[in-house]
Design a protein that fits this description.
Rossmann fold, 4-stranded antiparallel sheet, 28% helix, alpha/beta, 2 domains, 8 helices, Alpha-Beta Plaits
């Protein structure tokens, strides 16, 4: 085994989102290759030979003043990535019905058991938005419905949709690592109806769905809601999350402008997940 040395950065910040998403994207661009999301922030790792002491100088989120971000650094001789996941990724159960766990966790007694290895991707069920989207899907009628999971991250929501009886399902993410991770997790859960794609909303041209799930962020949602509606079948349902309570009126206004009416919304620690229908 090669003795690869890593530099580990341990970031703590508030609020967690969207700082976590932005930081991981920026660090990935400059050469960091592995990330572990924690309750307080993100642990990020880069091979020592790719590192220099000024590497964070151009990371905008650190100097923007929008977030309170602190970090410590250490040099690591060797990293056991499974150990990292075991330390930081605890299994969860949503509403006593759906469990989300890693392969090394004991199988729980739940109706739906999703096994994922998140790697660098988003969506373990720990974040409020993913948790609430799972709650929405547990109540929704998905039987034989065509589904889109937009900004799929780990693919967790597409996987749950298939488990709940959905028909052909597309899972799309613009991030290559998320796309690859979704493919892995789809196989890991023995899903047969999910097709993963790497890209953005431009892939939706001439595609139609009964249910669209978009757990992204406020700005992308506002920009793409019109495209989602164009791809939504009559009486179809749009589930959205990734924004705060104070943004709900803005999201709802954009949905109404495009012919949608709100069904309901739920909130968790100031985050919101809402459903709309044509």
């Amino acid at each position: 085994m090669s003795n690869t040395k890593y530099i580990g950065y341990y970031f703590k910040f508030s609020p967690i989102q969207p700082a976590s998403e932005i930081l991981i994207a920026e660090l990935g661009y400059i050469g960091f290759e592995s990330f572990v999301e924690t309750e307080e922030g993100v642990n990020a790792y880069i091979q020592k030979e790719e590192w220099n002491k000024d590497i964070l100088e151009e990371v905008y989120v650190l100097s923007s003043g929008e977030f309170d971000i602190q970090y410590t650094i250490e040099e690591i001789e060797q990293i056991n990535w499974n150990t990292e996941w075991e330390k930081n990724f605890n299994p969860i159960v949503v509403d006593g019905i759906c469990s989300v766990r890693a392969p090394f966790h004991e199988k729980p007694n739940t109706e739906y058991d999703i096994v994922i290895e998140p790697k660098m991707s988003f969506g373990t069920g720990h974040h409020e938005t993913t948790h609430m989207m799972i709650q929405h899907l547990l109540k929704a009628d998905l039987n034989n419905k065509t589904v889109l999971d937009m900004g799929c991250g780990t693919g967790i929501l597409a996987i749950l949709a298939e488990m709940r009886g959905a028909g052909p399902t597309d899972a799309i993410d613009i991030d290559n690592w998320c796309y690859l991770n979704t493919v892995e997790n789809v196989e890991r859960n023995d899903c047969k109806k999910i097709t993963a794609f790497e890209g953005d909303a431009s892939l939706l041209k001439e595609k139609r769905y009964d249910v669209i799930i978009a757990n992204i962020n406020r700005n992308i949602l506002l920009n793409d809601i019109q495209t989602y509606v164009q791809s939504l079948n009559n009486k179809g349902t749009l589930f959205v999350s990734g924004f705060y309570k104070e943004d709900l009126d803005m999201i709802t206004k954009e949905c109404k402008k495009n012919g949608l009416k709100i069904i309901e919304h739920i909130s968790r620690n100031n985050w919101v997940a809402a459903s709309y229908t044509l």
